[in-house]
Design a protein that fits this description.
Order of helices and strands: HHEHHEHHEHEHHH
Number of domains: 1
Shape: globular
CATH superfamily: NADH Oxidase
Family: Belongs to the flavin oxidoreductase frp family.
Protein name: NADPH-dependent oxidoreductase
Keywords: Flavoprotein, FMN, NADP, Oxidoreductase
GO molecular function: oxidoreductase activity
InterPro entries: Flavin_OxRdtase_Frp, Nitroreductase, Nitroreductase-like
Helix content: 40-55%
Number of strands: 4
Radius of gyration: 19 Å
Structural class: alpha+beta
Largest sheet: 4 strands, antiparallel
CATH class: Alpha Beta
Distance between the termini: 50 Å
C-alpha cells in the first residue's frame, strides 16, 4: 500500500504524551510549513496559527478545558484561528468597503481554510512518528481566549492541536459504513439500519471514553438548547451583526 494512504487510513487520536519529549525545532517548522501549504480558496489563506509555548497560557487553556490536560502535557500546542483581519487590512489599504458581517460566507471560507491547514499539520506530525489530537472544545471559551491571546477583531479561535510522542497505544476507530457517507452522482437514500449497524460496531469497539451509543450521543447533543457561544464570539469580533 502507498505509504501516504496507509498513514491516512491508520490515523487515530492520541491524548497521552511523554511530557519529557522535546519536539525538535526543525520538526515543528516542518509541520508548520506543511500546514501552510494546504489548499485555500482563491489562495486567500484565511487563517493564522498560534504556537502556544508559554506554560502559563497552556495551563489557562486546560483550566478552561479540564477534559483536555494534553494541551499542557503535549510537546507542542497549535491554535488555529479563522483570520479575516488580514483581508480587512487589505481592504483598508485599497480604500475598499469591508462588509464582512453581512454574510456567513466569509466565516465558512475562514473555517474551511483553517480546517485544511489543521489536517495538513496532523498528517505531517504523524509522518514524523508523532501523535496528535484535535481540540474543538476551545470554542466554548472563544471570547476569553481571544482576549488572552490578543486576537484582533475579525478573527476567531476555531480549534487546537496537541502534538507529542504517544505513551499509550490507540486503536484505529471505526468510521461510519461507506453507504452512509459516500455517494455517486447524487445523494442516495439509505436505511436507518446502516446507522444501527454502526452503533453495534462502536459497541464492539468499546471505547472507554464513550458513555452513550453513537446515535444517542448525537440525538442528545442536537436536542440540547444551543448555547450561542460561537454566535456571541463572532459578534464580539465584529464578524456577525
Amino acid at each position: 500500500m502507498n505509504k501516504t494512504i496507509e498513514l491516512l487510513k491508520n490515523r487515530r487520536s492520541y491524548r497521552d504524551f511523554d511530557e519529557n519529549y522535546i519536539l525538535p525545532k526543525q520538526d515543528l517548522q516542518a509541520i508548520l510549513d506543511s500546514s501552510r501549504q494546504a489548499p485555500s480558496w482563491m489562495n486567500g489563506q484565511f487563517y493564522s496559527i498560534i504556537v502556544i509555548q508559554d506554560e502559563q497560557i497552556r495551563g489557562q487553556l486546560v483550566e478552561w478545558n479540564p477534559g483536555n490536560p494534553h494541551m499542557l502535557k503535549s510537546s507542542a500546542f497549535l491554535l488555529f484561528v479563522g483570520d479575516l483581519h488580514r483581508t480587512k487590512m487589505v481592504s483598508e489599504a485599497h480604500g475598499s468597503v469591508y462588509p464582512i458581517n453581512e454574510s456567513i460566507e466569509p466565516i465558512l471560507l475562514a473555517t474551511t481554510d483553517a480546517a485544511l491547514a489543521l489536517e495538513n499539520a496532523v498528517i505531517a506530525a504523524e509522518s514524523l512518528g508523532l501523535g496528535t489530537v484535535v481540540v474543538g472544545s476551545i470554542r466554548k471559551h472563544g471570547q476569553e481566549i481571544s482576549q488572552l491571546l490578543g486576537l484582533p477583531d475579525s478573527t476567531f479561535p476555531l480549534f487546537g492541536l496537541s502534538i507529542g510522542k504517544p505513551i499509550v497505544e490507540m486503536k484505529v476507530k471505526p468510521r461510519l459504513p461507506e453507504a452512509a457517507v459516500v455517494h455517486y452522482d447524487r445523494y442516495l437514500p439509505y436505511e436507518y439500519t446502516v446507522i444501527e449497524q454502526y452503533n453495534k460496531i462502536m459497541d464492539m469497539f468499546g471505547e472507554a471514553r464513550e458513555t452513550k451509543r453513537w446515535s444517542q450521543k448525537f440525538a442528545d447533543y442536537f436536542a440540547t438548547e444551543p448555547t450561542m457561544l460561537t454566535d456571541q464570539l463572532l459578534r464580539y469580533q465584529n464578524l456577525l451583526k
